[in-house]
Amino acid sequence: MTQRSVVGKLDGSGLHIGLIVSRFNDFITSRMLDGARDVLIRHGVDAGAIVDIWVPGAWELPIAAKTAAESGKYDALVCLGCVIRGSTTHHIHVGGEASRGVARVSLDTGLPIGFGVLTTDTIEQAIERAGAKSGNKGADAALSALEMVSLLKAIRDA
Ligand code: INI
User: What is the C-alpha to C-alpha distance for residues 154 and 7, in angstroms, rounded to an integer?
Assistant: First the structure.
């Protein structure tokens, strides 16, 4: 029997993508935004079809993602944020709710949402993941969202 595989492709032509970005730690998130935008354009997304949507902090990513998803304007979203450990437990609540909330929006709406929220102990670790020696997690999240658009379609069509 021949094996059948269902896989996604990385072809962004004709797609509309929303990039939801946190202003908190924007010296990091703006680099992640650059990485996400760059990788999308290199995979065929029209620059004019990429919209960046700014929220105050990672906590606000889920509600903005829900509103963008329900607008019907986007084929996929990418949430970009950076939560750095502080001297209290505040960062744990912010990071946890951002991750739970974005997952819930994606499952509830069926829209692919790339999760590019760094949670690091130090600023150095965040810099490493925003375009330095550990790559750019914003670009990685955008690429995953692109793949999921095509994969979800392929699953339905299989
Ligand atoms: N928001 C972040 O995006 N990153 C953080 O590290 C952070 N910390 O640690 O405080 C943070 N807080 C703000 C939060 O996201 C909300 O914007 C704020 O609480 C207002 O609702």
Answer: 7
